[in-house]
Each structure stands twice: as C-alpha cells, then as structure tokens.
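Encode chain A's predicted structure.
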Amino acid sequence: MGKIVLHDKEFRLFMKAEKIDQVITNMAEEMNEALKNSSPLFLSILNGSFMFTSDLIKQITIPGTQISFVKIASYCGTHSTGEIQELIGLKEEIRNRTIVILEDIIDSGRSMKHLLEYLKQKSPKKIIIATLFYKPKAIVYPIPIDYKGIELENDFVVGRGLDFDGLGRNYPDLYILNK
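Encoded structure for chain A:
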C-alpha cells in the first residue's frame, strides 16, 4: 500500500518490511554473539514493541533466554504527554541478571529514563537497550543505546507496532505522516 488513512490523518509508505526485517536479523546476530554466556531477560515494552520483540526473539539462540513485558505510556495522539504511567509491572527477579530492554522507538527518551531508574533500583547485573527505531533529533533525555536499528528524522510514523491513537500497529511496513 502506498498510503493509509488512520482517524483523520493520511500516511504514506516510508519503509518496506523487508528492510526492517534485515535490520532485526542483523541485530539478533549481534546479540547472539555478544550475549551468548549471559542467560538474558528480554524486557519488551508494550504496546509498541510487541512486533519487534516477536521478530527478534525468534532469532535469538542464547540458552537460558527469558522474556517478560512491561507496559508504560507517554503518548496521546501524535505527541508525547511527558507524563509516564506504569501500567503493568515486572514480575521476574532481575537482581544480578542481564536485562535487554526491547523498545519499538526511542524519541524523547522520557519513557526510557523512567524505566531505567525503576530497573536500577532492582540491582540488575547489566542493562542493555535495543530499539528498532531511533529519533536522535527528538532526544530530550540522552540515554545509552546499545542496539539502534533504524535512525529516523523527527517525523511521526506508524506501522510495525507503532500507532496513531491505537490504529496502525498491524502494518508490517513503516508509514510517515503526510504534512
């Protein structure tokens, strides 16, 4: 599809699924090598990262790998509210564990800053951050990102788990808002 309409906004095709798939495969290969002796806990940030997590974790071959989910939110429409809501908490013990946070997109860094503060209180051995998409021009809270998939300009995008008020997550391609 060349364009989609979500609510009252029109989006045009920006990136095909095949390119995104290759980036995820490369990331999985790097992680398999770098984390092979760590029995990591992959922590997927809902809702947006569910597709990224699914695509990545199928390619992770590290023995002892576990997956858990945390839901935090800071978006309303096309803008971050700046308010963080922790909706679903972490149940696993993370003390002295290698944690790999899987995020769909890092833009302002607010949500990730909040999550890092929360996790560090639980004394993990190491925290690794992996994001499928990254907007360096939108960063307000700089954070160390270990695995950056695809760098984007500061435009609003949907698809591949990213949404506009609940719509658009299901598209395998990435779409950009027409201005």
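The chain has a mean pLDDT of 91.
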